[in-house]
Amino acid sequence: MEIGVDRLLCEANAVCVGLAPAVFDLDDEEELVIQPGPVPVDQVERVTVAVKGCPKNALFITS
Predict the structure, then answer these.
(1) Which of 39, 46, 50, 54 gives the lowest tally of CB atoms within 10 Å of its CB?
(2) 22-56: string of b/e by CB count within 10 Å (b at 16+)?
(3) What is the pLDDT of residues 41-52, one digit of tens each?
(4) Is this model's pTM higher than 0.90 or not?
């Protein structure tokens, strides 16, 4: 499972960061950062909740 973000929709409100901080973060410029590569198995449930909980529907599962 990998995650993508539509940067035009993302407002960096950090809901995903709160739900899955091991995968999502905000950089110094308040831009969303997603850890590269596949989502670790122990984070799949958290990331799935974060994708569904994104208020702007900016996150999506790519594989």
Answers:
(1) 46
(2) ebbeeeeeeebebeeeebeeebeebbbebbeebee
(3) 999 999 999 999
(4) yes
